[in-house]
Amino acid sequence: MKSVVLFSGLGNQIFQYAFYLGLKSKYNDVSIITNQTFGKNQHNGEELCKIFNINPTYNIWFYSNNIMFKIYKKLLIQSKLAKVYTNEDEFLHINKKPFEVYIGYFMNLKYFDFIRNELINTLEIREKLDLYNLEIINKMKSTNSLGIHIRRGDFLSFQGGIGLSLDYYKNAINFINDKNMHIFIFSDDIEFVKNDFMKLLSKNRGGGYYRF
Q1: Alpha helices, DSSP H only, in 52-184?
Q2: pLDDT of residue 209
Q3: In which residue ranges of the chain is pLDDT below 70?
Q4: What is the predicted pLDDT for the residue at 190?
Q5: Is 4 helix (H, G, I), strand (E, B) or coil?
Q6: Within 13 Å, how many C-alpha atoms sit on residue 144's CB side?
Q7: 198 burial via Cβ count (<10 Å: 0-12, 13-18, 19+)
Q8: pLDDT tens across 134-181, in order?
Q9: Whose CA is closest to 3, among 17, 11, 15?
Q10: Which residues pair with 83 in a beta bridge?
Q11: Which pLDDT does position 115 carry in this prediction?
């Protein structure tokens, strides 16, 4: 039995699901363990199956039951019948133990590039897009479009020191403006983008067009 833990935000969950599909193409007994197993939800909880029309196989022993997972770790791992993988360097060197759990982000094509078409066909959005979003998609397809994602939210209190200086963005935007791009901005803090970030963008250069 091999299980992949689904946790963090939607983007990470998509990578984890892709890794799950890759494993499933090679092994029979592959399942998903949700983050509820650990007694907590990150961001918006499990979003993958709410947004996409998919029905992965869940590990019923661990689903919403962190007690079972603690027993699993204590008994099976100590007996060397099981292994929990958290180091992504190990993911391509899978042991044939009766029980294996994979905890990671899997942001590498080598984990799922061989099932690319299946993955794309599987990620079908459940709800139909409204006219506004369909208009945006058509504009993206018909223009020299570029997406900029600005994440703030939980990153504002993150202690990992991943922030970039405004000079970094200025240099990148100067390059973009010279390419006559149609820019689409995605953010969890639109007011910040409108009030502060937009000062870095110049509509007088390259005929740029910006939309939120």
Answers
A1: 66-71, 77-78, 116-122, 131-142, 166-177
A2: 46
A3: 35-43, 60-70, 72-84, 86-96, 154-163, 178, 201-212
A4: 84
A5: strand
A6: 10
A7: middle
A8: 999 999 999 988 888 887 776 666 655 566 777 887 788 778 776 778
A9: 17
A10: 100
A11: 95
Q: Please, which residues have CB within 8 angstroms of residue 100's CB and are 6 or more apart in sequence?
A: 1, 2, 3, 82, 83, 84, 85, 94
Question: For the purposes of burial, counting CB atoms within 10 Å of the CB of 96, is it exposed (0-12), middle (13-18) or buried (19 or more)?
Answer: exposed
pTM of the model: 0.73
Taking the C-alpha atoms of residue 4 and residue 17, their distance in angstroms, rounded to an integer, is: 8
Domain map (residue ranges) of the chain: 2-122, 131-211
> Angle at the Cα of 134 (from 149 to 198), degrees rounded to 5?
30
Instruction: Mark 43-65 as b/e (b = at least 16 C-beta within 10 Å).
Output: beebbbbebbeeebebbebbeeb
Q: What are phi and psi of 151, to 5 degrees?
A: -100, 125
How is residue 123 written in tokens? 């990620």
CA Rg value for the chain: 21
The Cα–Cα gap between 60 and 69 comes to: 11
